[in-house]
């Protein structure tokens, strides 16, 4: 199996690059984000490779980092997500942003991917929620709170405060982060109005 290729960019296609490795041109399929970050033809590039062997073809998928390749694999463990959809998701969200979106149950961010509807986005977030926090760079308390809200087990004042901030136009992840911080400041038993007031102060910082 091919795990990595190092060579010169020969040319670009709509969703692939031809990488010249010692005179052999490898066609490597990449996300739009990866293609945009690769250098001009004639310049050197290194790609982490995922090799798919089928009865009728061998297909190579290329990634700028091993972490991006790992997410490509993880995404395809979700029902209804194949290589094409996984590449589309990675073309829309960088690996760190994808990890944050899943950790925070931000289905809307995942659903921005062309060809990914709300149902598939929900499956991605639900089925990968236990794996994402390891890659995410958000406060674990916020991840915990986002999960509690998503599963309807957060205290009512907390859930209502987040809902109020969302209704004011803030994104769900922003609102959850602000209310998590507010909850820490106010302590247990804080009322909704107090959490909203403290949450707005956090967002204004």
UniProtKB/TrEMBL annotation:
Q: Which UniProt keywords apply?
A: Cytoplasm, DNA damage, DNA recombination, DNA repair, DNA-binding
The GO terms this record gives for MF are:
ATP binding; four-way junction DNA binding; four-way junction helicase activity
Q: What is its main location?
A: cytoplasm
Chain residue ranges for the region called Domain III: 156-205
Cellular compartments annotated: Cytoplasm
Region entry Domain I, spans: 1-64
UniProt GO cellular component terms: cytoplasm; Holliday junction helicase complex; Holliday junction resolvase complex
Q: Please state every residue range assigned to the domain named Helix-hairpin-helix DNA-binding motif class.
A: 73-92, 108-127
Q: Which GO annotations describe the biological process of this protein? A: DNA recombination; DNA repair
One matching Pfam family: RuvA_N
The record's section on InterPro entries has: DNA_helicase_Holl-junc_RuvA_I, Hlx-hairpin-Hlx_DNA-bd_motif, NA-bd_OB-fold, RuvA, RuvA_2-like, RuvA_C, RuvA_C_sf
Q: What is known of its domains?
A: Has three domains with a flexible linker between the domains II and III and assumes an 'L' shape. Domain III is highly mobile and contacts RuvB.
Family per similarity comment = Belongs to the RuvA family.
Subunit annotation: Homotetramer. Forms an RuvA(8)-RuvB(12)-Holliday junction (HJ) complex. HJ DNA is sandwiched between 2 RuvA tetramers; dsDNA enters through RuvA and exits via RuvB. An RuvB hexamer assembles on each DNA strand where it exits the tetramer. Each RuvB hexamer is contacted by two RuvA subunits (via domain III) on 2 adjacent RuvB subunits; this complex drives branch migration. In the full resolvosome a probable DNA-RuvA(4)-RuvB(12)-RuvC(2) complex forms which resolves the HJ.
Purpose: The RuvA-RuvB-RuvC complex processes Holliday junction (HJ) DNA during genetic recombination and DNA repair, while the RuvA-RuvB complex plays an important role in the rescue of blocked DNA replication forks via replication fork reversal (RFR). RuvA specifically binds to HJ cruciform DNA, conferring on it an open structure. The RuvB hexamer acts as an ATP-dependent pump, pulling dsDNA into and through the RuvAB complex. HJ branch migration allows RuvC to scan DNA until it finds its consensus sequence, where it cleaves and resolves the cruciform DNA.
Name of this chain's protein: Holliday junction branch migration complex subunit RuvA
Its encoding gene is what?
A: ruvA
